[in-house]
Design a protein that fits this description.
The complex is a heterotrimer. By secondary structure, chain A is an alpha/beta fold. Chain A is 41% helix and 14% strand. Chain A has 4 domains: 13-115, 3-Layer(aba) Sandwich (Glutaredoxin); 146-346, Rossmann fold, CATH 3.40.50; 350-441, Ubiquitin-like (UB roll) (Roll); 446-531, de novo design (two linked rop proteins). The longest helix of chain A has 18 residues, at 466-483. In chain A, 61% of the residues are buried. Chain C folds into 2 domains: 3-77, Roll (Ubiquitin-like (UB roll)), CATH 3.10.20; 97-225, Alpha-Beta Plaits (2-Layer Sandwich). Chain C has a 5-stranded mixed sheet, with helices on one face. Chain C has a 3-stranded antiparallel sheet with strand order 6-7-10. In chain C, strands 8-9 form a two-stranded antiparallel ribbon. Classes of the chains: A alpha/beta, B alpha+beta, C alpha+beta. Chains in contact: A-B, A-C, B-C.
């Protein structure tokens, strides 16, 4: 099961991906055409439902349509609206005897192979509802089991029991740093009595990452349920969901889902018929990557400049309004309903010793199959990039894989056998990060990659602390010399020394990690930097 | 009366200082940007120091302190787009529009800006032209690219008759 | 009052609970370089000069913004720390336009002092020579952005001590700058009481009295600490003479 595929013998229906990626590829026009084609053959929504759903994974082939029927599921990609009739014929199995067959043939070029490893190796946990339910319908979410675990927690489990289960699952923060979730919860829960807050960090800003967006757009109720479970476990009765403003569709669907759940009494005062309250609010960012950092995010929720502050004190001790505040990322929270339903031990059985469970990755760049995949931790990088992603288009060779965004690094092709877990990636000078995975082919020059990320950090530095504000600017200038082939040998040492200084002395994670793309490319592709010390050395 | 609208939306937020960012978003929806007079009204309404309001408005990239140009073309320079040659795309757009990235255009009609990842990595490289996403731009094929630019309504600086 | 004991560079010290590592270092006779920190103002940990190492962790911590805890073993110097501090000062110099020879605060400049302390004789980083303006619109004071190091002392003293909040930071990253009001000329900002505290606390020659010439600035940087202490101890109550009942607890500052 991929989370995309429906059970054999499922009722006939069409599922249209309505996530941002497919929308930009024309999914709305296709859905209208499908509805017209359905009417043209005299069918209605009862006989053949056409449902908007969340991400169907293979974003690069959008717009995607899944076609369920007694024989199983077929997936089509890049279908032009003109072919809507053929899709309806296949889905409904109506029309002349050979109609569906002819339609099948017409659609052959668009049919995607669901047994391809891209789909077959996926294990949907966080994404289990994404692609199969209508993100705008609370009833559909409830039919898929939404809020059942929240109700169970509120009715049958003590907050300690919930925290125990999460600790048993071995779940670690999916925002990037990988801090054990259970431990974080305990820290908040065990603070002296008083008000507490929960915050969902949906400020997904790493370039090349769109995992959280897919959850927000595809299964928002799962996230709300996860956040409510976390609130119960740490004793919070107020919370915020902080979403980056660059995700308008995600914000719209999240707001709708929150309204629906509040109107139905699933969230709010005495939610789910319990004696507990939970007041949630959606807050929208305004374009600042640094707000993904916990302390900056809290300042932004308070309506201030998103500038980080020194830790300790940690938000778990003193966050919003000085009260203990739990901050978890979207993917972390969205994993909770399944963990509570199946048990922490079930989740912990997947993955590796130190990195349990599954992780969602956004695969993009120089790779055949781009899109979203959820795989068990510890899977080999090669499996993801080559087996599932199909490698570089036109048969080119993989040069490196970038993970962890501007805080991560480039893993060279000769290390593709590395298992994908927190420790292994860190050991290679990269990091798990939030889950963006950008494949680079032979034509990509590494000093340019490093400069690309350093420019990003220069643009996104908040300016509070000196090393990040002034150090990144100097680093970008230095990298420019290598890119243009006018560096001198001493610049290599200068680059290395300044990287170490910015890493060791910056105030927040953004600054501390800003040199990582340089350090990792220096480590694995030093010869490209040496080649940048050219005949123009020393020239301005 | 913009001022009355601002007063109204501040009241809707209970006049709480923590609503500053939300209020600025809504003010920008009214005016298209954040004019000084509106910032003043917001500061008074929320009882915040002027410099704090300006500090916040200028911190976040999505808040505009100047009236926007009529049309905007934004090039995504996220990593996936970068790997798929968004840098080349940006240069070609600069040439075609006769504009410099992130600098105000002389005639104020078109502006070219860069953005960092809008999460459409699967369709890289991408552009946002007046709010509409344009995907999978054929950077390697000059003719096809020019045709796409034409279809988006992007003027050609060289071909324009003045 | 409870007492915390810890070691600084191997030397045992005792400080009152709630004291910062900077105070603990002071108690051990160690003077750490600082630029953004000023006694009497909320610490921000922005200049990164007072970073110290803590036994048992790899992360460096800003002494000004870290509370001392029982049993901590703090080390304030090492070859790395010395190198990082020197590089930081170089970055400060390369970032702005600091030319001591004709600066109002030559001889009374904390940036200059720190440069001497860390032994910086030149910057290994190219100077950026940014284009920055001077605001001389205030009748008594002026702000020369060329010398600003973004320590935000002026922002804090105006907000925390004077309560006027004339200043704040605008923009971000390397575009960061100090602004008054809605990015207006200082002289036009109604909230300014012309108290001059911002000028007194500025570590460099960015904020100065208009009549000051080269090397003529004589700042009074103890002001926030003295004012805060005076407030906390109610020193304005005319030594021993009780205020009339009506003024008791009436407000912070009767002036």
């Amino acid at each position: 099961m991929t989370g995309v595929q429906a059970m054999r013998g499922a009722p006939r229906r069409l599922r249209c991906c309505g996530a941002s990626g497919c929308r930009s590829a024309g999914s709305e026009a296709l859905q209208v055409a499908l509805e017209q084609a359905r009417a043209a053959v005299g069918l209605d929504a009862g006989a053949l439902p056409i449902q908007p759903v969340g991400c169907l994974r293979l974003c690069g082939r959008g717009p995607l349509v899944a076609c369920d029927g007694p024989g199983g599921t077929a997936l089509y990609g890049g279908v032009p609206p003109a072919q809507a009739g053929a899709l309806i014929a296949v889905a409904s199995a109506e029309g002349p005897i050979d109609g569906p067959l002819r339609a099948e043939a017409a659609l052959a070029a668009h049919r995607l192979d669901l047994s391809h490893p891209f789909f077959a190796l996926q294990i949907p946990v966080v994404l289990e509802g994404c692609g199969s339910l209508d993100p705008c319908s609370l009833d559909d979410a409830l039919a898929h089991g939404a809020y059942a675990q929240l109700k169970r927690c509120l009715q049958d489990l003590s907050p300690e029991q919930v925290r125990d289960e999460v600790r048993r699952s071995g779940l670690r923060g999916r925002g990037g740093a990988g801090y054990p979730t259970g431990l974080k919860w305990d820290t908040v829960a065990l603070q002296p009595a008083g008000p507490r807050f929960v915050v969902c960090n949906a400020d997904e800003g790493d370039p090349g990452a769109f995992m959280d967006r897919s959850v927000l757009e595809g299964d928002p109720h799962r996230l709300l349920e996860g956040l409510a479970i976390a609130a119960y476990a740490v004793g919070a009765d107020r919370g915020y969901l902080y979403v980056r403003a660059e995700y308008p569709l995600a914000i719209e669907r999240l707001r709708l889902a929150l309204q629906q759940a509040q109107a139905r009494g699933l969230l709010g005062l005495g939610h789910c018929g319990s004696r507990h309250d939970l007041q949630l609010e959606v807050r929208v960012g305004a374009g600042a990557y640094v707000c993904g950092e916990e302390t900056a995010l809290l300042r932004s929720i308070e309506g201030k400049r998103g500038m980080p502050s020194p830790r300790p004190p940690y938000p778990a001790q003193a966050g919003l309004q000085g009260a203990p505040t739990l901050i978890n990322n979207v993917e972390t929270l969205a994993a909770l309903p399944a963990i509570l339903r199946e048990g922490g031990a079930w989740y912990a059985a997947m993955g590796t010793e130190s990195s349990r469970g599954t992780k969602v990755f956004a695969l993009s760049g120089a790779v055949c199959h781009t899109g979203l995949l959820e795989v068990p931790m510890g899977i080999q990088l090669r499996t993801v990039v080559e087996t599932m992603g199909g490698g570089v288009p036109d048969g080119g060779a993989v040069k490196a894989v970038q993970t962890g965004g501007p805080s991560g690094g480039c893993i060279p092709a000769e290390r593709l056998d590395t298992p994908v877990d927190y420790e292994s990636l860190t050991a290679l000078g990269s990091m798990m990060g939030s889950g963006g995975m950008v494949v680079m082919g032979e034509t990509t020059a590494m000093p340019e990659v490093a400069r690309h990320f350093m420019r990003f950090s220069v643009n996104e530095s908040c300016g509070k602390c000196l090393p990040c504000r002034a150090g990144t600017v100097q680093l970008e200038q230095l990298l420019q010399r290598f890119v243009e082939g006018r560096a001198e040998a001493a610049d290599l040492d200068r680059l290395d020394a300044l990287c170490r200084m910015v890493k060791a002395t910056s105030l927040c994670g953004l600054g501390q990690a800003a040199p990582n793309p340089v350090l990792s490319t220096l480590r694995w592709f030093r010869h490209e930097y040496e080649a940048g010390c050219g005949p123009l050395a020393g020239k301005p | 009366m913009a001022d009355r609208r601002i007063a109204l939306l501040i009241r809707r937020h209970g006049g709480r200082a923590e609503a500053l960012i939300e209020v600025l978003h809504q003010v920008q929806e009214i005016h298209g940007y954040l004019p000084t007079s509106a910032l003043l009204a917001v500061a008074r309404g929320l009882q915040l120091p002027l410099s704090r309001v300006y500090g916040v408005a200028s911190f976040y990239h999505l808040f505009r302190l100047q009236a926007p140009s009529e049309h905007r073309c934004a090039v995504c320079l996220g990593t996936a787009c970068f790997v798929r040659h968004a840098g080349v795309l940006a240069k070609q757009l600069e040439q075609r529009l006769g504009l410099v990235m992130d600098a105000a255009g002389a005639d104020g009609i078109w502006a070219l800006e860069q953005i960092s990842c809008i999460g459409a990595c699967g369709q890289a490289p991408v552009l946002v032209v007046d709010g509409a996403l344009e995907t999978k731009l054929p950077v390697d094929d000059q003719e096809a690219l020019a045709a796409r630019f034409d279809a988006m309504g992007l003027p050609s600086a060289r071909g324009q008759v003045r | 009052m409870s007492v915390i004991t810890l070691t600084v560079d191997g030397c045992d010290v005792a400080v009152p609970a709630g004291a910062s590592l900077l105070q603990a270092a002071g108690a051990a006779g160690v003077k750490l370089p600082t630029l953004c920190h000023l006694d009497g103002l909320t610490p921000v940990g922005a200049c990164r000069l007072c970073l110290v190492a803590l036994e048992g962790t790899t992360k460096l911590l800003p002494a000004c913004a870290t509370e001392a805890a029982e049993g901590m073993a703090v080390s304030t110097t090492s070859p790395e720390l010395r190198e990082y501090r020197r590089m930081a000062v170089e970055l400060f110099f390369a970032e702005g336009n600091h030319i001591c020879a004709y600066c109002v605060s030559n001889g009374a400049c904390e940036l200059q002092d720190v440069a001497v302390t860390v032994g910086m004789d030149h910057s290994r980083f190219p100077y950026r020579y940014p284009q920055r303006p001077v605001d001389a619109s205030h009748p008594w004071f002026a702000l020369d952005h060329n010398h600003c190091i973004l320590c935000t002392r002026c922002v804090r003293v105006c907000d925390e001590i004077e309560g006027a909040h004339v200043w704040d930071l605008a923009e971000r990253g390397s575009d960061c700058r100090i602004i008054s009001g809605l990015d207006q000329p200082w002289g036009e900002v109604e909230a300014c009481t012309s108290c001059g505290k911002c000028v007194e606390v500025c570590p460099t020659g960015a904020l100065f009295h208009r009549e000051d010439g080269t090397s003529e600035k004589h700042p009074h940087r103890e002001l926030p600490f003295q004012l805060r202490l005076a407030r906390e101890q109610g020193q304005w109550r005319n030594q021993g003479q009780a205020l009339p009942q009506a003024l008791e607890g009436g407000g912070e500052d009767p002036s």
